[in-house]
Each structure stands twice: as structure tokens, then as C-alpha cells.
Amino acid sequence: MTEGSIARHLTAYALPLILGNLFQLLYNAVDSVVIGRYAGEAAVAAVSASNPVMTIAVLGVSGLTIGASVLMSRFFGAEDHDRLRGEVATICLFGLAVSMGILLLGMPLSVPFLRLLRTPEEVMDRAAGYLRVVLLGFPFTFQYNALASAMRSMGDSRGPVLCLAAASVLNTVLDILAVGVLKMDVMGAALATVIAQAVSAGMCLYLIRRIPLLRLSRRQMKIDPSLLRETLRIGSVTALQQVCLPLGKVIIQSVINAQGVAMIAAFNACSRIDDFAIVPAQSISSALMTCMAQNLGAGKKDRARQSFWVGLRIELIYSFCVCLVVYWLRRPIMYLFAPSPEADMVALGVTYLGILSPFYLMPAFNNTLPGSFRAIKRMGVTLAATLTQMGIRVIMISILVPRIGISGAAWATVIGWIPMSTLEGLYYAYVWRKKFQ
User: Fold this and answer.
1) What span, in angstroms and rounded, lies between the C-alpha atoms of 112 and 221?
2) SS3 label, residue 305
3) Of all helices (H) and strands (E), which one includes residue 66?
4) Could you read off the pLDDT of 104-124 as tens digits, one per residue?
5) Residue 3 domain flag
């Protein structure tokens, strides 16, 4: 990414990532669609109630691997291959230890976590069972993210997508078989997810072993303390920023759970749709981060600065297209998640999406700016902006949802996005640009 057209590099890198994110989101969406169709609204509510717990763990992992990816991209740009291999070994081994700890901690605490979320008693057993089974796949999730970050840091964003594509297809087939044919309810969906996660991690490991630069010997498979400290210094801030969102969503989910099963099911479906609309745009941010980090590693500051503006334009184009699609198709999209077109959750979801989807342009700024900040190891402002955004959103949703229903959840999200964009924009205008002058 240090030579040639920036737009072409970002597009070629981001498109596979977007496709990969869509496959990743398809994991959860297929669970919701199949469960809604074959197991009913209460089963959808059970899965929805358990999702915030897993989301916290997964996004924490993502934050750590993003920190590792910044270092690997810089090492690759500077052609420091020894430290690149050392970073790959460090994040994989450290990730294995962390993921096993989360698995062992999460099993006995599943029910207490769900009670904190005010999960309705009628879905408690199903939610706890689903969460415990899905936790078994968490070590595979960490390893996939770590290995995928290594490949992406070298500019290969296609390999991880192939792994996710295969796993997503497998997950869909197993979901239909386990829930629709064998009638295993939410446990079947959980087992399908774990098997698919194991397949994606295994395929990613196979691809890594075929890259000579990343083929590590047993002697090289060790944790480098200095690299681990640097990874944690960068990654911990990003992980905390990533975790802030689901932690806030835990509180939000507890407010939603108190409104009844129909509201839980509708909010779960809308959250999936929001993810499809917003999360793939984060791939553009990842492409921007990698491009800028490689160029900074190669000493090309002007090219790194140009990359930011190209990335922002791509983000805005994508977000505008998604905004139009979700707004005009919100009702048929909701039908996918409902057991019938007359279900209460459909009307609730249409209301939510009608309010929020026109504002999908705002996350374009909230994705581009953090990508550039991570490339220059300045993640503090992103953390502050995220904390502000989620804090305001939690306060507003606690006030509005009990009074005006699901519309309050949509407006609370919009109100939270505004200060986030403002803080990050001010930081860019007055501080970040000085690095390139």
C-alpha cells in the first residue's frame, strides 16, 4: 500500500473485508431468522438476551487484535520481518490464554449475567443454555481474529474472507438442520455457531502456514514480553473502546427486556439490521488504518495524509447507499425475522428503522476518524468519544423507551452519535493534523 493508487488499494482491501463482515454478521442473523421461523418469538428473545454478553467478549478480542494489527502493519511496511513474526506468535499465544480464561469464567456466571440484564424468567433457561454452548467457541473466535489480523497487516484481506464464507455457509446449513429439521431449538443454533467458528479458525491457520513469511517454527512460538507490552498499550485502549459499546448495550438491553418479549425480539432484529448497515463500513476504517500504518512505517507522511481523505469519501458513498436501501426496504426486511407478517415485532421494527436509517451517514465519520487515529497510535480520543456517545445513549434510552417505546431507542442512538462526531472532528482539526505538518 506504499505505492500506486490509494483509492484502488483501499477499495481492493476493503471489499473483501466488507464481504467478511457480512459473513460474520450472517452468523448471528441466520440464528435469528431460523429461530424466529421455526422456534418462535420467545426463542428469538432468548438468543437476544444472551447476545450482549458474547458481544462484550468478542469486541474485547477485536480491540486487542486491532492493536496487534497496527504493529504488524508497521513492521511489514518497515520490512522488519523478525518482529512481524514475533508479534504473530505473541498475540496468538496470549489470545489462547485469555480466551480460555473467559471460557472458564463465563460458564458458571452465565445465569448471574443474564439476571443482571433483567432477562424474563420465561426465556432464562433457553438463554443460559445458548450462552454456555456459544462460549465453547470463543477460543476459536480469538484465534481467527489474531490470524486474520496477521494476513490483513500484509495487505491480504481475501484469505480471511474465504474462511468466513465457508464457515457462514456451514453455519446456515447446520442451523436449518438443527433447528428446522431436528427441532433442537436454541441449542441447535448454538452448536451450529461453535462448529462454524472452529472451521473458520482451522482454515485461517491453514492459510497462514502457506505464507512463508508467517510460517513460524516451534522455537519462534513464544511470547515476546516487549511486544506484548506494546500490543497491550495500543490494544488495551482499543479493546476498552470496543467493549464500551456492548457494556452500554448491556444496560440498554436491560431496559428493553423490561418492555416485554415483542420489544426484545424487535430490538434484536433491528440491531442485526443496524450491524449490516454500519459494521461493514468499519472495514473501510480497517483498510485506512493498514494503509496509513504501512506508509508511516515506510516514512511516507504525505501519502498517509492523502489516504485519510480518500477513505472518508469511500465511507460516505457506502453509507449513503445503505441508508437508502434500509429505509425503503425496512418492512420486508423485518418480515425475515418474524414468525409471521402480523407479529407485533414487525411494526415495532419498522418504526425503529424508519427513524434511525436516515442518520446512517453519521457513522461514516465515526469510522474514518478512529481508523486514522489508530494508525498513529492515538486511540485516547476515540475512547473518550465512545464513552461520551454510549453514556448519552444509555441515559436517553433509559428516559425515552419507558415513555415512547422503541422510537426512544432510535432517537437515543442518533443523539449519542452527535457528540462522538463532534469530539473526534475537533481533535482532528486541532491536534491530529499537526503530526503531518
Assistant:
1) 37
2) helix
3) helix 41-77
4) 888 888 888 888 777 777 878
5) no
Q: How confident is the model at residue 296 (pLDDT cuts 50, 70, 90)?
A: confident
Q: Which residues lie closer than 8 Å to 297 by C-beta, 6 or more apart? A: 73, 74, 75, 76, 77, 78
Q: CB–CB of 199/247 below 8 Å?
A: no
Q: Which of 359, 381, 107, 131 has its CA nearest to residue 253? A: 131
Burial environment of residue 108 by CB neighbours within 10 A (0 to 12, 13 to 18, 19 or more): exposed
Whole-number Å distance between alpha carbons of 386 and 392: 10
Q: What pLDDT does residue 199 have?
A: 92
DSSP letter at 156 equals -
Instruction: Count how many domains the chain has.
Output: 1
Q: How confident is the model at residue 280 (pLDDT cuts 50, 70, 90)?
A: low
DSSP 431: T
Which residues neighbour 196 within 8 Å (Cβ) at sequence distance 6 or greater?
27, 167, 168, 170, 171, 174
DSSP class per residue in 310-350: HHHHHHHHHHHHHHHHHHHTHHHHHHHHSSSTT-HHHHHHH
pLDDT (0 to 100) of residue 27? 63
In a domain, 218, yes or no: yes
By the 8 A CB rule, do 383 and 369 touch? no
Radius of gyration of the chain (CA): 21
Asked whether residue 2 is domain-assigned, the answer is no
Domain with 287 in it? 10-436
Q: Say how many C-beta atoms besides its own lie within 10 A of residue 97's C-beta.
A: 11
Task: Indicate whether 315 belongs to any domain.
Answer: yes
To which H or E segment does residue 413 belong? helix 406-430
